[in-house]
Queue: 2 jobs
Job 1
Amino acid sequence: MKFEVTILGSSSATPIYNRNPTAQVLNINEHLYLVDCAEGTQQQMLRFDVKPSRIDHIFISHLHGDHYLGLMGLISSMHLNGRRKPLQIFGPAPLKEIVDLQFKFSETTLRYEIVFTATNPNEAQIILDNPDVTVETIPLDHRIACTGFLFKEKKRLRKIIKEKVAGLDVPVSHYTLLKKGFDYEAPGGKLYRNDELTTAPGEPKCYAYCSDTLYNQQYFKQIEGASLLYHEATFLHNLLERANETHHTTALQAGEVALKTRAHRLLIGHFSARYKSLNEILDEAKSVFPHTELAIEGNTYEV
């Protein structure tokens, strides 16, 4: 099953140095999930060939402009392009009022339904559960109410060994049972164990998206063992005081989060506009957690 994330924006606060503010899109089994939607996200979608019509779920972490100011434009474009299917939006409760007011004063009636789910910044909750994935909120510690999102892949079915099954003329009607772990009894009575005809699926993967937050161990247990951890790394550690004032994290701290939560890999983003080059930020995080990569716009990372 495909499980990957494409970065659409990795800057904090403002677009600068060809970096757009935060937005990324997850592809989970060919279903697209948009996570945050800064100003300019539509242009980034055009640039990196992400089709808005394929997005049915949008997750907004908090109501600072560099995480949601592109949302209204995207919703409006979907309307103008003839969208009919519902769009699910998950975000802070006041976001619904913002959306409703925009359409009230522009006298716009959408051609499609928006299904809004308010997130709770005070406790982790499962906000989406479908055949591919569950999505859980991660309460974070920012200057305003803010949640991250934990995408957990569902356990997959066993994989049929086609050559062996074909040789036994196993009826197609029995394939689902094989995938679920049942043995196969041939017409002559011979029993074939399931592990002779199928292989076990890989362990379910998970992607932890930790948006703007102060370094705070309150969310560590929830994200433990993430296959891929995205964590903000706004400043270098020599600006720790500034990071604390603004409720952000340094690159060194992001590395410590990955180390302490036993993440498999770390992806850092939300870079301050003061940094034209990101080499120092990467080196600082890697000094603690070597399996670290920069969230570079247009790049796709497998979970």
Job 2
Amino acid sequence: MKLVVVSAGLSVPSSTRLLGDRLAAAVGRRTPVEVQVVELRELAVEIAHNFTNGFPGRQLSAAQEAVARADGLIVVSPVFSASYSGLFKSFFDVLEPETLAGKPVLIAATGGTARHSLVLDHALRPLFAYLKAVVVPTGVYAASEDWGAEGLDGRIERAAGELAGLMSGLSAGLPAGRGPVVGAADGFGAVVPFEERLAALRV
């Protein structure tokens, strides 16, 4: 299976890229994957040209093809003005419609303070829901103080397990969200469908 990491980090080295690498490694410990990293800072000029002339350059076209062919995505953006970066959004703006439909996606972000952790739910999750992706329940946010602290590793492992489960289920021909139960190792059991709970109350 192919796993693509889309990193919108701007610096070298980048904490955004580091988080993407750690998430990919955690997925790889659960299921065999071929990992490809798309560094958006290297595509900034071609993305801008795509907006003005309507045609992707060679590198941008290759990145778009990689995302389209991926069995799963990890997307990581630094936080700018309490949201994802403009470069991050622009890349997904120039993808063909339906490219992400039904594709498992793990959302993640980095920032200087924990106050921006809600970016996952108020910005990234709605974006990928709009693009019809299947977003895993656990998003991962890493503030500056999280690196080396307790808690980050657990969030990485849990999110990676959810993505690996979705990817494995889809590769086995199961609909999105109906693959192997994920998170059992973290103490989470199988989810009982609401209809079954409701039927039990009627007995």
